[in-house]
Amino acid sequence: MSFVTLNELIKQLKTAEISPASKRRINYYKKAHLVVIDEVGFLPVSNAEANLFFTFVSAMHEKTSIIITSNKGFSEWAGFLGDEVITTAILDRLVFKCEIFNMSGDGYRLKHRKTILEQ
Hints:
With 119 residues, the protein is an alpha/beta fold.
């Protein structure tokens, strides 16, 4: 299993051609049985970065299990990815043969933070 934030993944994808460490990390993700990509939608990405993310998702599509965590609904993805076409292509690959869990309520960190502050 591999765990990475979208921001970290994009940095590694952008530098994979010039950094042996980034290239090794990307290859490690591609060999993993499960990749967890966290904080999707937390920061906006450029069109070039969205294209890199699409390329990565396409390479992983139907070969590796992917878990995406996001505080954004699918309708908001075009806003932070910057392009409806690339967003549709990414989501098409991610939701094919998948299970979607929509969780609501207080976040784990916030819930426990409140108990600490109340003491």
